[in-house]
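Treating backbone geometry as a discrete language has practical consequences that deserve illustration. Part of our work consisted of pairing the sequence of a single chain with a tokenised description of its backbone. We regard such an encoding as a compact summary of how the chain folds. The amino acid sequence and the backbone structure tokens for this protein are reproduced below.
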Amino acid sequence: MNTIAIHLAVATTLTACHLSHVPAAAIRAAVQGAESMTALFLFVAIILIAVMACAAIVLAALLAELLRATLKVTYALVTVVTVIAALVAMILHH
């Protein structure tokens, strides 16, 4: 761990010394480039979240329709089974 700390301190010091030789305009240009990339990333992330929210709404509507169809099929099945049971009971009773 001591070796890593020493190397990190040396790298930080050398970077600070190196940046003192770089013109301020170059640093500003690099920062502006990073800001534009951050803004672009944020814009893409917001669009992605909006698309995912829209997809979730559509999926919820699709599942609601599927449950409605399942309910209708279940209702029809219960009705058919009830009618068959009533017919079997009538046939066996006579």
